[in-house]
């Protein structure tokens, strides 16, 4: 397996878990165009690799991600395109949304470690994760409207994560809140006070995920994500077909045999 390496997105793989770091600490890991491209390239590269069971996303320097790099956007120029020209601002925005979609639909379990600034695009990354941990004093928020901008590519994922009512308030006020409130809203699943508590909770969660068969998890994630996006009859038809495929798979044979034999299946002990 070859994992793309980038100075803005260093990655370390061990025992089924890919640890990925957003690495622009001097700007609280704000995402510039180069980082967005690197994130997309990494998730596209591992998409069909079931040896990667979990992706843990974390920011360098005590911050998760402060959103998009507005300085880069201003420096690139905001002049409207001439007739027939590509609107590069719109194209870059859409590319970011597509990157969010790719991360959110990854067959692997994606875990976000939210601490420090979790703003704008960083908030979006938290929303597309499968499991999120938040430090109690982390600062969450969607400040776009306070800067005269809409959270254009982020808003759909916020609505999907916490519901329309809460999304309306957060998007239309730009208010910031801490990790405890993020937990109350259902944006994150676990809180932590310090590195020791995070290590304990993360180890437990990784152990739980690694007890699950990788292909079964990938199928399950696809089914869950399809529930709110497709007609229910189509979802159930697809689920039936996937279940039949899974029943006849080597994973099911191993999992059922392990259960009957009262032993762990082979995937529960990744090399």
Average predicted confidence as pLDDT? 92
CATH architecture of the largest domain: Alpha-Beta Complex
The helix-strand sequence is EEHEHHEEHEEHHHEHHHH
CATH superfamily of the largest domain: 2-enoyl-CoA Hydratase, Chain A, domain 1
Radius of gyration: 20 Å
Our count of helices gives 11
| Relative helix content | 40-55%
Explain the layout of strands and helices.
Blueprint lengths: L10 E4 L2 E6 L10 H14 L7 E6 L10 H6 L12 H17 L4 E6 L2 E3 L1 H8 L2 E5 L3 E3 L13 H8 L1 H10 L5 H7 L4 E3 L2 H16 L3 H14 L4 H16 L2 H12 L10
Parallel strand pairs: 2-3, 3-4, 4-6, 5-7, 6-8
Antiparallel strand pairs: 1-2
Word description of this protein:
This protein has 271 residues and is of the alpha/beta class. The protein has two domains: 11-209, 2-enoyl-CoA Hydratase, Chain A, domain 1 (Alpha-Beta Complex), CATH 3.90.226.10; 212-268, Orthogonal Bundle (Lyase 2-enoyl-coa Hydratase, Chain  A, domain 2), CATH 1.10.12.10. Helices cover 47% and strands 13% of the residues. The chain has eleven helices and eight strands. It has a six-stranded mixed β-sheet with strand order 1-2-3-4-6-8, with helices on both faces. A two-stranded parallel ribbon has the order 5-7. Strand 2 (17-22), helix 1 (33-46) and strand 3 form a beta-alpha-beta unit. Helix 3 runs parallel beside helix 4 (121-128), helix 4 packs across helix 5 (155-162) and helix 9 (214-227) runs antiparallel to helix 10. The two termini are 14 Å apart. The model has no long low-confidence stretch (mean pLDDT 92).
